[in-house]
Amino acid sequence: MDIGKNILAITTNLPEGVKLVAVSKTKPNEDILEAYNAGQRIFGENKVQDLTKKYEELPKDIEWHFIGHPQSNKVKYIAPFISLIHGVDSLKLLKIINKEGQKNERKIKCLLQFHIAEESTKFGLDIQEARDVLDSEEFKNFANVEIAGVMGMATYTDDETQIRNEFRMLYNIFTQLKNEYFSAADSFYEISMGMSDDYPIAVEEGSTMVRVGSKIFGARNY
């Protein structure tokens, strides 16, 4: 498994402006360093304990993304250093992130997660729930959270048309929210969609950020 070569193969084909998040969950530090030495700087983890350990041990110019669904009681451990939290789907969670951001005197960037897949196991808001959050007085008073865009996962299927339609749905949600709430905010620009199996379709449908694990590091270690 040539991690450096895999990264190059992906980044060479990504259009300008599309970021690669190397999903390093379950992977050892040496694999991450191999990717780092190939020029990769953004890595995604989904377990707080693993993430804080890797943050301590690895180069400090790595941009860490939390790509799982963060548990409320664990946000405090990643609040001091996290660059982006991908899976935010409630006002309650935003409130906690804001509180921890305040303690650390920093603004924490988040993506609102939308449920675009047919599988009920996936987390996420629908557009009306997102509007309810963004319209709430409580949200308007958050000074330590920055909504940087949207995130969603397509159904795990071979049906390319379905995947494309789901990504298109997320793109449309992004556009609606941009127009309704963030038209003056340059900070609202990310559309995080696409993983190892479907990221080329996601990019065609307007993704600005793809999360790729197995295509870089090989199968997951459990």
Q: Outline, from the CA principal axes? A: globular
| CATH-level-4 superfamily name | Alanine racemase
Q: Quickly give the CATH architecture.
A: Alpha-Beta Barrel
Query: What portion of residues is helical?
Result: 40-55%
Structural class of the helix and strand makeup? alpha/beta
Q: Which stretches are low in confidence, meaning pLDDT under 50 for 5 or more residues running?
A: none
**Could you give the distance between the termini?**
18 Å
Largest sheet: 8 strands, parallel, barrel
- Lateral arrangement of strands in the main beta sheet: 1-2-3-4-5-6-7-8
Layout of helices and strands, plus pairs?
Layout: H1 3-13, E1 19-23, H2 29-37, E2 42-45, H3 48-57, E3 63-66, H4 75-78, E4 84-88, H5 91-103, E5 108-114, H6 127-135, H7 137-140, E6 145-152, H8 160-180, E7 190-195, H9 199-204, E8 209-212, H10 214-217
Commentary on this structure:
The chain is an alpha/beta fold. It has one domain (3-217): TIM Barrel (Alpha-Beta Barrel). The protein is built from ten helices and eight strands. The chain has helices spanning 3-13, 29-37, 48-57, 75-78, 91-103, 127-135, 137-140, 160-180, 199-204, 214-217, and strands at 19-23, 42-45, 63-66, 84-88, 108-114, 145-152, 190-195, 209-212. The chain has an eight-stranded parallel beta barrel, surrounded by four helices. The chain starts with a helix and ends in a 5-residue tail after the last helix.
What are the salient characteristics of this protein?
222 residues, alpha/beta, TIM Barrel, 8 strands, 41% helix
Task: Provide a short characterization of the protein structure.
The protein is of the alpha/beta class and 222 residues long.
